[in-house]
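Hi all, posting the design record for the shared folder.

TITLE: backbone redesign
STEP: 1 of 1
STRUCTURE INPUT:
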């Protein structure tokens, strides 16, 4: 047993705190908008210029002009605000965003993050990830524990070009939750039906 993508997003939503401004990266993190806990008011920021994103639309709510940074259609809220990219990145670089929940290709045991390109593959650009990891208060990564070949994505050192050095605070995978601490990763929580031995054997990075 391991968590599904939706369960990973639901667990990531538990990281949200009342009153925070939060940026959701593309991939699994966009699903977090559907699982905001009751009683928690958070304002979701999208780097393409939207503050206050609602959940994904139902079929009759779809507006093709209303998209997040991953080009998925989203809904607006009564308090939603719109602005240009310069203002959006001003918020990010100015430290106004409390947390970013991002996807990743690799995370190293010291918190290095690689999530923007695979050499030799077509890349549309790095998006806002480099600014986000440098400017936000807390970085939570949500990703599968291993790649499609079964190789750990939690490594001693990243092999792909870095998005940021020592920037990740917490990692949520389909096997559990780990924190980046001095000397390696610390297991915080195991996914339902996953043993500590299973998680350890699936992880290349040092677990302390």
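Okay, here is what came back for every position:
SEQUENCE:
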């Amino acid at each position: 047993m391991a968590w599904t993508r939706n369960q990973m997003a639901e667990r990531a939503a538990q990281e949200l705190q009342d009153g925070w401004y939060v940026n959701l990266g593309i991939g699994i993190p966009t699903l977090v908008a559907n699982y905001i806990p009751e009683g928690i008011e958070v304002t979701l920021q999208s780097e393409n210029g939207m503050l206050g994103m609602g959940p994904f639309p139902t079929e009759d709510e779809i507006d093709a002009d209303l998209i997040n940074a991953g080009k998925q259609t989203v809904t607006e809220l009564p308090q939603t605000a719109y602005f240009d990219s310069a203002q959006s990145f001003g918020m990010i670089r100015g430290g106004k965003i409390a947390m970013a929940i991002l996807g990743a290709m690799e995370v190293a045991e010291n918190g290095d993050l690689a999530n923007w390109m695979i050499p030799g593959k077509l890349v549309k650009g790095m998006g806002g990830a480099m600014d986000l990891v440098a400017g936000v208060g807390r970085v939570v990564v949500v990703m599968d524990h291993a790649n499609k070949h079964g190789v750990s994505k939690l490594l001693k050192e990243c092999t792909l070009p870095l998005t940021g050095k020592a920037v990740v605070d917490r990692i949520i995978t389909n096997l559990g939750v780990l924190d980046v601490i001095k000397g390696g990763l610390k297991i915080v929580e195991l996914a339902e039906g996953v043993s500590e031995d299973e998680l350890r054997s699936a992880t290349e990075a040092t677990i302390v």
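COMMENT: The longest helix spans residues 5-13.
Let me know if anyone wants the other runs.
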